[in-house]
Specification:
This protein is of the alpha+beta class. 33% of the residues lie in helices and 28% in strands. The strands form 8 sheets. The chain has a 6-stranded mixed sheet with strand order 2-3-1-4-5-6, with helices on both faces. Strands 7-8-14-11-10-15 form a 6-stranded antiparallel barrel.
């Protein structure tokens, strides 16, 4: 369990950690010279079962304080008895709340410096401070560096909490927010940070954000102990290979899945009740997400203004891209006032800032992702139409097993990463049939179908209609089964010549037909290609055309042969009476359609129903 200490500057957080662990977390020379915590400090007890994150209390270093907080940690609000609750006590408590921490305790330090009456006054101030916060019913411990026994009840409490500490993010893919990076002689590059979800093992590969580069985990330390695995909520040091120190900095991430770069976020914003003024559209803010910090602007709806204590859904347009997932917590600080404006959880994210923030399709997506569970979100997305499943899985940060189980609860039709519900599939199928029925004298190609039919699913829908024997497919064109197309007079005359001439297992070439009918071969093939579009001929090979029924008869011979003997070119030639060169052309056409597949010198049947 990781315990995050928070509180006003000089309220004894570092001394408290030293009393509990024996470790001075002020590691920097400047910190020791000034007696002031500037950066994050870490210490561990009970063989790493409990870790302490000492965060800066001074307002100037609030960005470092935010970097040390994660939602699955345990909070320890530290308040000095001589001062009582101070401005940073209140702001730190607000940051802890906005980050999503749900459990913690309060520790009073320096009790030896005050009278009993002053201590009671301090306790009353703490009681008022934590009212209606997650610390409202939490225990308060009174400590003093002059009385080592005063820490015993606190340690007992922390150990009991560690045993009960639940880790709900372990099932998600691994990701870690980097707060330090350095080279170790003989080991190489080491990064440290807090694991926000999932688990990682040695030799596993991770992705670095923002570079997207893959790195390999060579070694692991968790809670300052050697380990073979690290999990959500733990402080980790990972020895990695595949990157240089110069390319990694605080605010970067390591993730088990390729991280996306988002420039616009939809956020459920909770404005701090202490924020002193109304919030207007395009207010500049500092954005803190784990160890990452950048700037952005709040985009409000037309006429919208937010007051202290309000909650509203807003857009956040980032100056620099950010890596996040659904439900991640952000802290926002006002750019001019240098105080915490509020915080919130990420609902939706986009890789580019939208031009039309009120677009209907975008609002439907935001409404779907605003729902509480991945299942409800997916149901709403599918109801709206075509759904990118990979984007859905990545943004909800679902594991492979969780995603597979969830998707199996829906009847879906897939095309790569995209999916359609069965209801939409049947509606599109009916719309296609209606389009063909409305044009009975016309054959249609895929690019002539209704624009409302998703392009990713057009071919699959057409294939199913052909399989259902509602449509026929010839030469890239589709028409209703049994549909007779009206031919121009010149094609009717050509068809009367060609139909009997091609009624053979070995169809003559267009060159032979041109000589027989005294027609220029180029003109003849132009007319034959028109008959292909009408479904009356099939273009099998260069200068070779077949009647559809004749080709079906040849396919039946192939099926019969394959059932009793190896299907070879020689055997096919002998069985059909087709010359060797033409036999190769026909068999290669069958291969191209997925009817057969060549294996060495033989062929096997792949789909016996294609020419039914």
């Amino acid at each position: 369990m990781i315990v995050t200490l928070a509180g006003h500057v000089d309220h004894g957080k570092t001394s408290l950690v030293r009393a509990l662990s024996g470790v001075n977390t002020d590691r920097l020379a400047e910190e020791q010279n000034r007696g002031l915590t500037i950066d994050l400090g870490f210490a561990y007890i009970d063989e790493g079962q409990i870790g302490f994150v000492d965060v800066p209390g001074h307002q100037k270093f609030i960005h470092n304080m935010v970097a040390g907080v994660a939602a699955n940690q345990y909070a320890m609000l530290v308040i000095a008895a001589d001062d009582g609750p101070m401005p940073q006590s209140r702001e730190h408590l607000e940051i802890l709340r906005l980050t999503g921490i749900a459990a913690g305790c309060v520790v009073i330090t320096k009790s030896d410096r005050v009278t009993a009456e002053r201590l009671r006054t301090c306790e009353e101030g703490i009681h008022n401070l934590v009212q209606q916060s997650f610390l409202q019913a939490s225990p308060v411990f009174v400590t003093s560096t002059e009385n080592s026994g005063s820490y015993t009840p606190l340690l007992k409490h922390l150990r009991a909490q560690a045993e009960q500490h639940a880790n709900t993010q372990l099932h998600q893919p691994f990701r870690l927010a980097i707060d330090r990076s350095f080279n170790v002689k003989g080991a190489g590059l080491v990064i440290t940070g807090t694991a926000h979800s999932g688990s990682v093992t040695t030799d596993e590969h991770l992705f670095h954000y923002p570079s997207g580069q893959s790195v390999r985990v060579r070694g692991i330390r968790t809670q300052d102990q050697e380990a073979s695995t690290a999990g959500s909520g733990e402080r980790c040091a990972l020895n990695i290979a595949g990157m240089e120190l110069a390319n990694i900095q605080r605010g970067d991430w390591l993730s088990a899945t390729p991280p996306a770069r988002y420039r616009a976020l939809s956020v459920e914003l909770h404005v701090s009740k202490d924020f002193p003024r109304a919030i207007k559209h395009w207010t500049p803010v500092h954005v803190y997400h784990a160890t990452y910090h950048c700037q952005g602007r709040l985009a409000l709806a037309p006429g919208q203004r937010l007051e202290s204590g309000q909650t509203a859904q807003i857009d956040l347009i980032m100056d620099e891209p950010i890596y996040c997932h659904r439900g991640d917590r952000l802290i926002l600080r006002d750019h001019g006032l240098d105080t915490t404006l509020g915080g919130g959880s990420v609902i939706y994210a986009e890789t580019i800032a939208p031009r039309r923030r009120q677009g209907v399709r975008r609002q439907q997506h935001i409404a779907a992702y605003a729902l509480k569970t991945p299942k409800d979100c997916l149901a709403a997305l599918l109801q709206g139409g075509i759904t990118d499943l990979q984007l859905f899985r990545d943004f909800w940060h679902l594991s492979e097993d969780e995603f597979t189980t969830l998707v199996s609860e829906f009847v879906l039709h897939h095309s790569g990463d995209f999916a359609l519900s069965d209801e939409h599939w049947l509606n599109h199928k009916a719309a296609l049939l209606k389009q063909f029925t409305a044009s009975p004298d016309q054959a249609l190609r895929e690019n002539q179908l209704l624009s409302t039919i998703p392009s990713a699913f057009r071919q699959a829908l057409l294939n199913e209609l052909v399989h259902d024997k509602a449509l026929t497919h010839t030469g890239g064109e589709y028409k209703l089964l049994g549909q007779v197309l009206k031919l121009p007079d010149h094609l009717v005359k050509l068809w009367d010549l060609l139909e009997p001439a091609l009624a053979h297992n070995q169809a003559p070439s267009s060159g032979d037909l041109a000589k027989r009918f005294n027609i220029a071969q180029a003109n003849l093939e132009r007319g034959m290609n028109e008959l292909v579009k009408s479904g009356l001929l099939i273009h099998v090979a260069n200068h070779r055309y077949y009647l559809p029924n004749q080709l079906k008869d040849v396919a039946k011979i192939v099926l019969r042969m394959a059932a009793s003997q190896p299907l070879t070119v020689r055997g096919f030639r002998d069985e059909t009476g087709i010359g060797r060169n033409v036999a190769i052309e026909v068999l290669e056409y069958f291969d191209s359609k997925g009817f057969t597949r060549r294996q060495g010198n033989d062929r096997i049947i792949l789909n016996p129903t294609i020419f039914d």
